[in-house]
Write a structure and sequence with these properties.
Layout lengths: L1 E6 L5 E7 L4 E6 L1 E5 L2 E6 L5 E7 L6 E3 L1
Antiparallel strand pairs: 1-2, 2-3, 4-5, 5-6, 6-7
């Protein structure tokens, strides 16, 4: 999986998800919320899938469920 996050001028976050193994690209992430190193995502198009993770300090990786 690859997550592409963008930050708008107003500070809001948006994201798109790629499933590299399945060849799916730019799946819209319905909600992105970050508080410090904690990140929460929701993908309504995938039956309300959600993910809660923690970023590494350098922002290169995220681990969670």
């Amino acid at each position: 999986m690859a997550l592409k996050v963008a930050k708008a001028a107003d500070g809001s976050l948006s994201a798109k998800l790629d499933s590299l193994d399945q060849g799916a690209k730019d799946l819209p992430v319905s909600m992105v919320r970050q508080s410090g190193l904690n990140v929460a995502l929701e993908l309504k198009m995938l039956d309300d899938a959600s993910y809660d993770g923690t970023l590494k300090a350098d922002g290169s990786e995220m681990a969670g469920e």
